[in-house]
Amino acid sequence: MSMGAITVNRSDVLISLCVLAQIFAATTLNGVQIVLELIIIAFLLILIVESRVKKKDAIVIFIIVVCCLLSLYNNPVSAALLSVKLYLTPVLIFIYFKDRSISLSLLNLVFFLNVLGLFIWVLFSVNIFGFLDGLLANDNIADHGFSGLFLNYHFTADFMAIMMIGYSLKYRLYFLDYIYLFILFVPTALLSYFVQQQFLRITRKRKALNSVNQVYVFISIVFVLFVFNEVILNIFGVYGKKLGSITIILDQFFNKEFWLGALNLFPNDIVKHHNEHFTYYRGVPIVNEIGYITLTMQGGLIIVISIISLVYKDMKYFLLYFLLTMIHYSYFLSPLVIYSCLAINFNFGKDHNIVS
Length: 356
What we know:
The chain contains 17 helices and four strands.
């Protein structure tokens, strides 16, 4: 794309919009976020129409649109439109970028800003992104401390973990990655990152990385959590509010009442689910915090399974991380996350022997 003597990279424009949309998602300016996301969708549709769309990609797009339309029979229009936006955008990102050269320049800049921000926070107790605190939609974000450029410590942890997994494929990080996630204090991300890195370390020694084996590891971990659920709840339930969140997650994850109404074929109204299903923690009602339930409520099983079948082979460096973090939250299908994974694959994945 050319503007006079200035050459503008389409990828950089798209990812800049994705970064801005993710930042605004945590603020009261959600109207700006919606406008940005509509621009992203329109931009991607134009680019995809200009190129040749593979049949399987077109089928997934068709499934998303049709399922969201069918969901209108028992959902408000707003819920259906939300589902279209949430699931169509990452799919379009994946379809357009999966076979293209991808630059890490903007992602490296965002990574550096998050590293610099935490460094200044630790040394001087100054949040360089604090000027945006007045726009935060959730007061708990500010109470957490440093939440990063994205104004959301969960999403910041996901983004940084993905980037550090990529960097670790080529460089030694000398435990700085673990230190960063520990200070950011998102236990789900830290533990999931540790498991993913150990899996990669073991499989790289054997010069083979298998996505299916990551699913087996995840199932094994869930089984262990189920067996020792009560013990874990008793241990972590006494360690204050932040560690107490582990008890909330496990309580909901193994609570069949929370899954009732969540396993739908078509998208459903997650607000309705929040109003009807919640647990209590220290006398306070807590709505759903399980990423899997959020995904299946907003997308329905047909859409979620279709998207996972489309992208899972390109998530081989991150699959176990996502499977574990989705026990708590669901940024797996964020457009920026999908793009970051593809960028890591393109820039760092070539030199490794992979078995899909």
